[in-house]
Amino acid sequence: MRTILVLAGGHSTDKPVFDTAIAAARPLAANLEFLHVRIGPGEGVVHIPHVEFATGAGLQTVLDDLEKRSITRATAALHHFEELCERESIEIAVSPSDLRQGTLSATWSEEQGNATAKIMRCARHNDLIVLGRHTRSNGLPPDLAERLLVESGRPLLIVPAERRRHLLGTVLICWKETATSARALTAALPLLAVSKHVVIASVQEGSDGSPEALYHLAQRLEWDGISADVRWLAQSPSPVSERLDILADEIGADLLVMGGYGHGRMRAMVFGGCTQRFLDQSKRPVLLMH
């Protein structure tokens, strides 16, 4: 995991997103590609509620406002990037040959128009995508994270709005016997290898999984240099998402790792109803892989 794409929105949410990206990249000496896509009025207007009822001068006012917001966001995003690089002493580099070995580095990219396609292209060209949770209208599709999850072929690191001090102290792997869980675990291996404490947890659902299978997984992870504790949660009427959230609080988890799957615009995690809870409401960063 040496290349990480960071979406820069030009909002206050840039700070927790940037800080989380740095926390993931620094121990790996990765290169961070900060990307901002300037949204044109014609592209952004389709995500404005009830805009189809605007005509004439009213529509022009909406378009002018969108253009002003786009310029403001682009200026702020670049400022946030420059401020971060100065504060964290991050070197700017496009190629590994520009750096001494083991150095954290970054690059800035700004694109204009056709936002989803350009973000998707850059996402596929990096090892990990770091982005904030959608909380406001910013000209991008509200379901951008879901699209990236399903179509990019890369893991996503979804960052909450609240800033957290650590990322790789305690990592909770939310495991289920599925291919998506296995892919998420594989994607997270570089981060798990530099984490202080790893916990694998699984919630009993019907006949799927077993404590023995969980211990076997922990045993195999030892060959990757990862020592993991096991937590098997017996079947209960409580929602799986709630039980995992409670466990995350108990162990002081800084990061959650889980498989995720979606079809089109429909969300669903490997734990079924967990999607809304973890993708939209988790207090912690969540690493997802489809």
From TrEMBL:
SUPFAM superfamilies, sorted: Adenine nucleotide alpha hydrolases-like (SSF52402)
CDD domains cross-referenced by the UniProt entry: USP-like
Annotated InterPro entries: UspA
Domain UspA: 189-288
Record Pfam families: Usp
PANTHER family according to UniProt: STRESS RESPONSE PROTEIN NHAX, UNIVERSAL STRESS PROTEIN HP_0031
Family statement drawn from the similarity comment of this UniProt entry: Belongs to the universal stress protein A family.
Name this protein carries in UniProt: Universal stress protein family protein
Source organism (scientific name): Enhydrobacter aerosaccus
